[in-house]
Each structure stands twice: as C-alpha cells, then as structure tokens.
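Q: What changes when 26V is included in the input?
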Amino acid sequence: MQKLSKEDIKSGVVEMLRTAYRKTVATATPQQIYNALALTIKEYVSEHWIATHEHFDKADVKIVYYLSMEFLMGRFMGNAILNLSLQDAVKEALAELEIDINLAEEAEHDPGLGNGGLGRLAACFLDSLSTLGYPAYGCGIRYHFGIFEQHIEDGYQVEKPDNWLHYGDPWGVRREEYAKEIQFGGRVVSIKGDDGEYHFTLENAQTVLAVPYDYPVVGYETNMVNTLRLWDAEPVNRFDLQSFNEGQYERSVAEQNLARQLSSVLYPADEHVSGKELRLRQQYFFISATLQRVLQQFEQRHGKKFEKLADYAQFQLNDTHPSLAIAELMRLLVDVYYLPWDTAWEITRTSCAYTNHTILSEALEKWPIELFSRLLPRIYMIVEEINTRFCKNLKEWYGNDPERIRAMAICADGQVRMAHLAIVGSHSVNGVAAIHTEILKNIELANFYEIYPEKFNNKTNGITPRRWLAKCNPGLSGLITDTIGRDWVRDLDELQKLKPLATDAAFQQKFMDVKHDNKIMLSNYIKQTYGHSVDPDSIFDIQVKRLHEYKRQLLNIFHVIDMYVTIKMNPRLDIKPRTFLFAAKAAASYHRAKLIIKLINSVAQMIDNDPVVAGRLKVLFLPNYRVSMAEKLVPAADVSEQISTAGKEASGTGNMKFMLNGAVTIGTLDGANIEMLEEVGQDNIVIFGMPAAEVQALRASGTYAPWDLYNMDFNIRNVLTTLINGTLDHNNHDLFRELYDAMLNGYGGARPDEYFVLQDFASYKEAQERVDAAYKDKQRWAQMAIMNTASAGKFSSDRTIKQYADEIWGLKTEHIQ
Ligand code: 26V
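A: The predicted holo structure follows.
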C-alpha cells in the first residue's frame, strides 16, 4: 500500500475543507482543519483496516473481544499519526499550508468515555493488541456524554456535561448493517421451535436497536488496524401509521425514550455502585449486541459447530460490568441456537475470562433480584439455573455447609452477585498486580481460590509506550533514540541499555535538560491557561488521579500544610522550592471527595496570599483532569505521588507513566509500586508507610487511636488545628470541621481515619525530607531519574498483553501484508 505523502496530505486537507465546509485553509477554523486532517488520515487508515479484516476472514483467525463499559482513548489523531509514522509528512504538509499543527491537534476534543484507570487500561491494551498483531475488538458503548467536564468555582468542583460529539466524529464509522435488536422486560414464554422442541422466548418486551460505530485502532508501525466497536442505541422504527393503535403508540414512545437514555451518559461514580436500573440496561445492551454479532459471524464461518467457539473467540470481561455476557451467551446458545445446557455451559466457561480491578467493597456489583428479574426475566432464569447447579456442586464438595454455600452463592440475600457469576462462568480470574492477586487469592476470594485454584492468575498492568513516551515526551524520546536506537518503542526492555549511563555526567546533563524543558513547557501552558506562575526550577511534585479517600490526596495536602506551618515558624528553613500540582475529578455525589478538592484550593489560596512562603511553596489544583492533560503533566514531573493506603490500590497505572518519564516515586508498598521497587531498586524510589499486612492487622485489632497520634505528634496537631482555627477561611471556621472530625472522631458513624492518614503521616513527612535531600544533590537526582526510565520496561502494556494472549486467550499474532 502506498504510504501517505506530504503532497497527499496537503491535497487531502484542502479538498476536505472545500467539500465539507466550503472553506479554504486561510478561512477555516482550527476545528475544521482538525476535522479535515482527521478525515484525510482516516481515509488512508481505511485501506489497512479493510486489509486487516480480509486477512481475518481468509485466515479464519481467533479473535479476542475486550468487553468494557469504558474506553478512555484520549485524542485519536496524534496517536494515529505517530503509529502510522506520518509525523514528518504531516508536519511538513501543515507547515507548507501555514497551519499551526499544535492548534490543529488541540482542536480535537478529548473523548472521556471512561472514569479512570480501568478505562485507560482498556485503551492501552488496544494499542498493544494492534501493535503486536493480535486480532481484537474492543466492545463498549458510544456514550453521547462522557465523564463530566470539571470546573472549579470558588474552590468547589462544578460538573458540566461533556458533549463530545458536538463537533462531529471523524473517526467513527456507522455500521447500520450490523444493527441488532435488544429486548428488555416482557414475559418469558415457551414456544415450539423448528426442531419440534419447546424453547423460551420473550413476549411483550421493550425493544431497542443497537447500532455499532467502529473506530480504527492503529498499531505502531504495522499494517494491522483493529476495531473499537461502540454500540449506540436507537429506537426500532415502529411507526407504521396504518396499523397504529393506542397500545403500540405508548410502547413506541417508551422505546424512543429508552433508546435516548441508554447510550446517553457514562456513569461517573468510579469505584462506587449505586444499583441504578439504567446502568444494568446499559450493561445488557452492549453485551447482547456484541454476542449476537459474534455468534452470527461464527455461524457464517463455521455453521453450527459452536463447540469450537472458544477456539475462535475469547471474551475478556473488564471487571464485572460486562459479566452478563456469561448469561447472555448461555441464552443465545440454548434459546436461539438450540444447544443443550451442558454443551452451552462448556462453551461459555471456556470462552470467558474475568479481570478484577478493585477490592473496595463499595465497588462490588450486586443487583437486587427484583430489579434484575423484572428487567431481564429470561437472563434471570438462566442466572438462577447457573446458581442452582453451582450450589449443588458446592454441596458435593463441602457436604452440607449452608453458611459457606450462602457466602459463595451467585444469588443470595435478594441479590445477584456479579463477581460470583463472573468467577463461576470463566476459565480465568486475574488480578492486576502481584499484591492484588495475592489479596484476591488469600483473602477476598479465598473461598473460590480453594475450589478453582487453576483459574487464578496475575497480570500486572502496563501502559503503552507509544502514547506515554514516544508521543507525549518528544524530548526524552529523541534523547533515548539518539542514545540506544529506536527499538524501545516496540520493546521497552531495551531501556535497560540506559542503565550504564545513569552515572554518566554528560548523559545526566542531557536527561535533566530535557526534564527542565518539559517543565518550562508545562509552566507556559499553566500560565496561558490558568494565569498562574509556577517556577520551573522548583521541584514539580504531582498527584493526579481520581479523587478518592483511599488514594489519600488528604495526606499530601496535610503535608503541604505542615510545610507551610514549618516555614512560617522558621522562615530560614533550608528547603528546595516545591510546586505541588493536583488534578482529580470527584464523583458528583461523593461529598467528602469534593470537600477535599475545596481544601486543596483553600490551601493553595492561603499560600498564594502569604509573602512569607512566596517562591518556596506553590500549590495548584488544575481543573478537568483528562488524558490530554496527563500527557502534558507526566513528562514534566520530578516527583510522582503514589500514596494510597497499602492494600487498597489494585495496581495503579499513573505510577508507571511517571516512572517511564523519569520521575521519582514517593509511594506506599501498594499495587504495582511494589513491582516498581523491585525493578528500580530501593535507592531510586522513596517508600514509606505501613505495608498492607500491617494495615490489615491494625484495622483488625480495633486499637487504632488517632487521638494518641494527635496528642503525641506536634506536627499532626498543627495540621489538624489549621483545619478549624480560621487560618484557611476566616469567615467559616467550620468549613473543614468534617475532615477534622473524620480524622479524630469518625464522622457519620464511620471509624476515625479509615485510611490511616495520620498513622502514616510521620513516615510520609520523613520520606518527603528524603526527597528534598536527594533533589538537592543534582547528580544523585539525575541518576535516580534515569534509573526510573531505564527500569520501566516491565510496565509496557505489550508485556501485559503478551501474557494475556499466551496464558489466558491462547491467541497468536498475525501479519497483515
Ligand atoms: C465501578 C463503577 C461502579 C458503577 C459506576 C461506574 C463505575 C466505574 C468504575 C468502577 C470500578 C473502577 C475500578 C477501577 O477503575 N479500578 C482501577 O483499575 C485500574 C486498572 O486495573 C487499577 O490500576 C487501579 O488501581 C484500580 O483502582
């Protein structure tokens, strides 16, 4: 296939502007130029995309379907340009057209079709699947509104809708020909099939149409283009005016409304389930559509040989959100394709695999049976049947042990437990970092590990080096490529070759120059966008992630308050100036998290207004954290804050992005931090706080007494007093009293300081002093930073995906001509 040339790009853009907008380069808006360039590139991608699918058909390949409610893709264009090696051609073409490439790239809206780690992981995985040559589909929902846009007003978070489709959707291809009908509610009846047997079907159900939109997933320097298939809901057209009676009219209106709601909005309450009917509808909607299409295609290729399904299709469930796949696959095989239950069950179990992403109990999905059976009556019958057979097996294994059976059942206490369904109906259950998998096996899911030890396995998360180094950090990428060649982009272990240079003065200088340039660029961006001045010579200390108590943004801001108080008491204190950057969205209904955002902003203001600390301390909360913002922050970080209560953060992936870009981590022994420590060595990471086992023991002992810490630790006392003595808000001393009470007394019935902020405070403060000391020694710091980049190879999502392919899916790579 002919590679897109500079001239092709120029004429493509000019032509698109003319036909689509009746504009010239001189008169087009940045938005229009972006669209024209995107369409030009998509047209080129389409050839590879078609070739990929022709190959899949011809070679009759096995395909993995990554089922996920969230895909946090980030901007498409820059990534496509990089992966297609079109960077030079595009740059030159735009230069000749006198178009500012940055303006065009920034005009692309960053689609926020995910909450955080789980959604971004799905996007990194797709990049690796295409790059490595694995046939794959990402399957999800085409939400019309992504995660809300966060504004900060008077220090408080305010949510605004994110209408990402408003400016068009140049990468999406509507595939009406693959639309599928999805049924909700109704009554289960049995009717005689063409085989003469009775089969279940639904009567009087509500029906909506699922229409797929396909997005190209371009691999890095390969011809493979996989597909992200997002389903959109539309009403089934029932407006047949001739035969219109009242009943049909009402049903039709209800179905129109349902369709409008279904793919309208992403649920933004990360790690917290609310048991909303619409959420369950969304889950069934995209699962049923996906599976109907997969089975239809399988039948076209293999006829009725569904016993072989698992040899051609693997379904990876991204958390329990898609776990209805297990019941829906059973329904299709049994009710539609007339397979016997046991055969269908074998097929289902061998084709599904489940990934767990959190052990937080508030994130465990459980649906009230009343709701579940009303919305999905046939699916509920199937879940009950699965449950009955599973409980019978338990009885055979354990004898009559009703307590154990109730603990492990899929249906119990009036609820359907989706994690149990996912475990029982899959051949693989994996955690996302070593410690997380151990906690699943030994504590959280110990019951299941006992009966299914062979199902459990670990797949430590990873990130794509394309977006998270090659694209977001051209300075460092260039330096690395000049030093060790370009193979690292496909084989991140190559970065090891930088290790001997960690002590090389000349290389240290270059490495730190790049970091400094990145800090200047970020400072300029912050100045332009928010009007704040930050000093690129200060330490850039960054904590960006969802706002959640277990992630302990509070510990970070308490330490800032402590530094402030300490400097006030001793203005000549010798510390390196620091800039603390925060960014985080709080779930709209998560009051405590929103109060913490207000606190961070109040501390920022207090510091800005105090000349005593000027030039030494700066705090800034950047609104509307998103993938494209992370791409600006990560390359400029000196210090990466990964400070969750040990045992709570399943893996973390932001931690890996910062490490790869040469930041030094200050972190707890939690999630993948533990494996980062193993890779980088203890001299190059700053670890503090209680390990998970200690946290667990302290919690279990019931002896944790934050008041004792308050009484004995002068610094803790000062910090907590600052919350309530009017320093932060002269007019409202009670604004942060809730946080004070939550720390010391427990608030609203909760235990005091549930996430052990005060317990880890002294250790954190001491660790921050180690950071300060290390930074003051320029060579030492440069060495640490380089060692982080050089040791990040393990955390490539290419490594992770190879392990999924080899150990779970049994998937082979393909080469597209
Ligand atoms: C739960 C819910 C509940 C209903 C509303 C919407 C919603 C959205 C997400 C979730 C579960 C989130 C789980 C999650 O994101 N876990 C994170 O997964 C990352 C990738 O494995 C991992 O690095 C993080 O440590 C983990 O917190």
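Observations recorded in class: The chain has a mean pLDDT of 96.
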